[in-house]
Design a protein that fits this description.
The chain is of the alpha/beta class. Helices cover 48% and strands 13% of the residues. The protein contains 19 helices and 14 strands. The protein has a 5-stranded parallel β-sheet, with helices on both faces. Strands 7-8-11-6-12 form a 5-stranded parallel β-sheet. The protein starts with a strand and ends in a 5-residue tail after the last helix. The relative contact order is 0.08.
Length: 458
């Protein structure tokens, strides 16, 4: 039976809470002053603590600070009769699991205690598992500029990187925003013979059209108003290294023509200059645009397109390798726990399930940001569902409501989910059956049969 310690200088309050919590299935110990409470915490194991803020001698915040020194994983719920903004901020900054306002809403109180006890039990299970696995399983701090993922789609990306790294071929990296295109470029450079040279990145989408040429190729003194001295461009800075042109689909046609010359002849002129400058640079490019369509629309040069796509690496969206979500999430959790100096060890099963049920339109970048936010908001060593953004919580709820429709048999539920998955995958791939079948692990004939069965074709 979970044990809760109630600390309040009014004995009538402690006895009232004892009765309420015992009826809810908890074993309860009480203390009416801070010193007695600390003795109990030293001598016994508790799953949660209810602690009044306003007490004589040692106030609640002082008691909580000492409790945290004894057991940093023990969740403390502060009780106050003053539900002000300042008090709420002070309580949460001090590390409280939560705070509740007197007079108590009993449903809220019991629910808060239940969440705190659940988190403490999960934290204890994580510590037991770590002890069983021993030191060999101790977390290793990894840099944030490496690629993480064990799925087959990501393994295919790694293999391609390994095959092209030591060559000088131009590589076009394609994928949705947030999939990690820059990480691929850095991995290629870091595993190449050029790794001792510079890696120069330029985001073509953030540079105004009238400055693009001077940024890429530099300018001579007096080339334009304000050009008080010669300035080398990105290509000169990348000599004997690698230049990474992110969002290359945003380049103007004029800049594309000059880039094509660099690719073909390995030389260019600064803006306002006449001297031909030769460079030894490997070009990596990335875009989330369909460059083939841009060529058809006349916004991207066909000859440059073919020059860039000597080798193409396609980065899959996160929704197509969801098996990597747990390892990515724990990797980000470990990183931000150390960066923010917080003890946050893992996700609760319910929180991890929410991460795995979300479709991640922002891909790995969105997952990374959500993990950072969760560490900031975490009230203990385990990330709980309420520590995750509302968008994930509503997504999880919508999925449950969509699946668990009243009166449906298990067979009907499975068929309904299968139809939704097939329909969504078809839409994501513009109704291309070959691509859809490949993602779903089906052959075209099986996919066609299921589409016909579910009324997705006439």
């Amino acid at each position: 039976m979970p044990t809760v310690l109630v600390i309040d200088d009014e004995e009538s309050v402690t006895e009232f809470l004892r009765e309420v919590l015992e009826d809810a299935g908890y074993q309860v110990e009480t203390a009416t002053d801070g010193y007695r409470a600390l003795e109990l915490v030293q001598d016994y194991s508790f799953d949660a603590i209810l602690l009044d803020i306003r007490m004589p001698e040692l106030d609640g915040l002082q008691v909580m600070e000492r409790i945290q020194q004894i057991d940093g994983a023990l969740p403390v719920i502060l009780m106050t009769a003053f539900g002000t903004t300042e008090m709420a901020i002070q309580a949460m900054k001090a590390g409280a699991f939560d705070y509740i306002v007197k007079p108590f809403n009993l449903d809220e109180l019991i629910l808060t205690v239940k969440k705190a006890v659940t988190m403490k039990q999960l934290a204890s299970e994580v510590e037991i598992l770590r002890g069983n696995h021993g030191a060999e399983q101790a977390p290793v701090e990894l840099p944030m500029d490496i690629m993480i993922g064990q799925s087959l789609p990501m393994q295919a990306v790694y293999k391609t990187i390994g095959r092209v790294a030591n060559s000088n071929v131009t590589v076009l990296i394609q994928g949705e925003s947030g999939t990690g295109k820059e990480l691929v470029a850095r991995a290629i450079h870091g595993n190449s013979d050029r790794r001792g040279g510079p890696f120069v990145k330029i985001n073509c989408a953030t540079i105004p059209e009238n400055l693009m040429e001077s940024e890429l190729f530099g300018y001579e003194k007096g080339a334009f108003t304000g050009a008080g001295s010669r300035k080398p461009g990105k290509f000169e800075l990348a000599h004997q290294g690698t230049i990474f042109l992110d969002e290359i689909g945003e380049l103007t046609l004029s800049a594309q023509a000059k880039l094509l010359r660099v690719l073909q002849e390995k030389e260019f002129e600064r803006v306002g200059g006449t001297e031909n400058i030769r460079v030894d640079v490997r070009i990596l490019a990335a875009t989330n645009k369909d460059l083939q369509r841009c060529v058809q629309e006349g916004t991207f040069r066909e000859d440059l397109y073919f020059r860039l796509r000597v080798v193409t690496i396609w980065l899959p969206p996160l929704r197509e390798h969801m098996e990597d979500v747990p390892v990515l999430a724990r990797y980000f959790l470990q990183h931000y726990s150390r960066e923010l100096s917080k003890v946050v060890n893992d996700f609760s099963p319910a929180a991890m399930l929410m991460l795995q049920q979300y479709d991640w339109p922002g891909n790995v970048r969105e997952l990374r940001n959500i993990c950072e936010q969760a560490v900031v908001l975490a009230r203990g060593p385990i990330i709980m569902p309420e520590d995750l953004p509302f968008s994930l919580q509503s997504s999880s709820r919508e999925l449950r409501e969509a699946v668990l429709k009243p009166g449906m048999t298990l067979k009907e539920i499975v068929a309904d989910v299968e139809r939704q998955v097939i329909l969504r995958t078809l839409r994501e791939h513009n109704w291309n059956r070959s691509a859809t079948a490949k993602v779903l692990g089906l052959n075209r004939r099986s996919l066609y049969a299921k589409m016909k069965e579910y009324g997705l074709i006439s």
